[in-house]
TerB family tellurite resistance protein (Zhongshania marina), 150 residues
Amino acid sequence: MFEKLKQLFSGADEDSKDSAMSLELAAAALLIEVSKSDYQQDPAEIEKIRDLLVSRFSVSLADIEEFMATAAALNKDSTSLYPFTRYINDNCNNLEKYELIVALWEVAIEDGNIDKYEDHLIRKISDLIYLPHTEFIRAKLTCTEKAAGK
């Protein structure tokens, strides 16, 4: 127990979490958070997250179930969005941040409705990763127009 406290105060535990973090894990944790934000984690949203991780974030189809379990555990253990948004800020350019926000909108709209909590969370993430508001709106419009054309 004292070792854990020493690690906590020395920052060693934080460093080990950062070294284990990847763009794929950070994105997956944020995608899962959006899917849970309306208090109804729809199976279609979970399937959409799997599809996005395979198609846009280079997670192999063979590893997707294990990866989703890892991301869900990471998301569950986290008390804030900070570790994920910090990783995004440190490692992504504005185009990659925009693509992440598009992916978040795609998960939010997958069940046919963008809940106010989903909207708020995506706006918050967009602000935390310093994406310009015009890009946030453009991403939302892109996804809603695409969903309306289905």
Notes: The chain has nine helices and no strands. Residues 4-19 have pLDDT under 50 and may be disordered.
